[in-house]
């Protein structure tokens, strides 16, 4: 069985996905894990802290970011996936919009394709996902990273994001993707205001009702600063953990976080408190 699906099948607690961005410009850990050695050290640390999945990304999709050349993205992510795979069987996801990167990452040992464009970025994204036959995260975004935060607009944010995801699930199934390979994500911070993000988090049960695992990535995001006097990225741990606990309590099955140890500890306490 695919290690990613195996992990999803087990727990009565959500899975913790630890983020490793091998980019110079990611909003929270940009520049920290550019070398294979530094990224591998971080992978070891996150595994020791209890990460169920490592999410490896070589292109920042933060608001205002520029796209990355495919060759550069290959060079950033492949050696790291290979290095992790040489020493660990931890589930690995590749965070990319590019089918050719997803294909090479899976060949190098990745188990899941995390696509913030929900397989819309390239004409052959859907066909590639079908062929790779690994779990795929379909995430909602309004606009592209360069401009998405300029004026996000919805009449009914939850309804529109749900509609989009239902539409993408339908298209993916029609193209031949297995339903069991589909994970959905409302895309916190991707073309959303503070109010949009809060509404989506409160409405998570409606996403859970789609019947597919829900992934939430709220860690260190800007909405936390908007609620807390512009807190800098490094000062958003409390808000990140609060959002992760809230998401878990409202049915999220995968939490994408930068701070694995703290999130795991908070989830353990929450589980103990709720388990009566
Ligand atoms: N958020 C980011 C990147 N990838 N993938 C999913 N499925 N859901 C998310 O919410 C999500 C994601 C953005 O965060 P980060 O990777 O920390 O920053 P950057 O895009 O600057 O690399």
Query: What quaternary form is this?
Result: single chain
Low-pLDDT residue intervals, each spanning 5 or more residues: none
The run of helices and strands is HEHEHEHEHEHEHHEHHEH
Q: What is the share of helical residues?
A: 40-55%
Assign the CATH superfamily. Answer: Dihydropteroate synthase-like
Apparent shape: globular
Strand proportion, as a percent range, falls in: 5-15%
DSSP, total strands: 8
Q: What average pLDDT do the residues reach?
A: 96
Distance between the termini: 33 Å
Walk across the major sheet and give the strand order. Answer: 6-5-4-3-2-1-8-7
Ligands bound to this protein structure: 6-hydroxymethylpterin-diphosphate
- Provide the gyration radius in Å: 17 Å
Major sheet characteristics: 8 strands, parallel
Q: Any idea of the CATH class?
A: Alpha Beta
CATH topology: TIM Barrel
What would you call the structural class?
A: alpha/beta
Give an account of the 3D structure:
Helix content is 44%, strand content 13%. The chain contains eleven helices and eight strands. It has 276 residues and is α/β, with parallel strands linked by helices. It has a single domain (3-274), classed as TIM Barrel (Alpha-Beta Barrel), CATH 3.20.20.20. Strands 6-5-4-3-2-1-8-7 form an eight-stranded parallel sheet.
